[in-house]
Design goal:
The chain is an alpha+beta fold. About 25% of the residues lie in helices and about 30% in strands. The chain has a single domain (about 10-90), classed as Aminopeptidase (3-Layer(aba) Sandwich), CATH 3.40.630.30. It has a four-stranded mixed sheet, with helices on one face. The two termini are about 25 Å apart. About 15% of the residues are buried.
Length: about 100
């Protein structure tokens, strides 16, 4: 088996109020051999409990969608184990396209 390092990078998006980070998420931009363009992975969307229902989550997700487009990504993927948040992602334009399988270490 041959291994080859493939470069990728991450961008952190955050919302700060009065010096405190109240919401954050990450966009990871990666490449593979199937496409010339990179793809994006949105990870760890989080809004502090005291700051929910203010639109911060949607602001972060829309920011990542725009950034992924600007960086030429052919797709943006995200995962969630909670049904209610999956419905929220669908309202923001995401569609079910498979099933996540994983190994936790």
């Amino acid at each position: 088996m041959k291994k080859q390092r493939v470069e990728s990078y991450g961008i952190k998006f955050s919302i700060v109020e009065y010096g405190k980070e109240v919401a954050r998420t990450y966009l990871y931009v990666m490449k593979n051999d199937l496409h010339e363009e990179p793809f994006g992975l949105m990870e760890d969307v989080f809004v502090h409990e005291d700051y929910r229902q203010k639109g911060y989550g949607e602001q972060l997700v829309r920011g990542i969608i725009d950034e992924a487009r600007e960086r030429g990504c052919y797709k943006l993927i995200c995962t969630s184990s909670k049904t209610w948040i999956q419905e929220w992602y669908k309202r923001l334009g995401f569609a079910e396209r498979g099933k996540e399988l994983r190994i936790d270490f």
